[in-house]
């Protein structure tokens, strides 16, 4: 993703990256943020059972930190549209792809530019007409080594393994495992630990992996 030059976050990420340290402290991580969890938009009842949206505060922080007004913010796993909706609200051009037709229809009804959300498959990214992207901000679909459901098709297909998941993720961009794959294309700047004000999704923190295109 394209960044706005040096920032306080960049400086903290440099410090957290072992290769940039003159003196290597014992602490494994020095970079963290404390943010409130939650979203302004309340999902319809039919969607609430799978409400795993990124917090508005995290999306707002990243959009403000890594893009300028008028630039393109892209989410290849748009979900319920948090990134696109907040990008529009903050004066950016939000674009995205969502596999679920039901979710895509819902989000298009909320967007100022519904045509910017494509109902499709991010694994076929090259098939879509997209503008040059200034910031890619997304939460990849979750899976682990014991799962056999394909997260790229909304978990509707069986017989999918973890190595295929990593390969497909790498193809889309042509957690630490994801960092390794995406680092083959982009430069891995470092990670930020997000400490939430409320416990949720089975944990009280998240990891934000930051990449740049040099």
Could you characterize what this model shows?
It is a single chain. This protein has helices at 8-16, 56-66, 82-89, 101-108, 162-172, 176-182; strands at residues 32-35, 72-75, 93-98, 117-119, 135-136, 187-200, 203-212. With 214 residues, it is α/β, with parallel strands linked by helices. The chain has one domain (42-186, 208-212): Rossmann fold. A 4-stranded parallel β-sheet has the order 4-3-2-5, with helices on one face. It has a 3-stranded mixed β-sheet with strand order 1-6-7. A hairpin with a 2-residue loop joins strand 6 and strand 7. Helix 2 crosses helix 3 and helix 5 crosses helix 6. Residues 1-7 and 12-30 have low confidence and may be disordered.
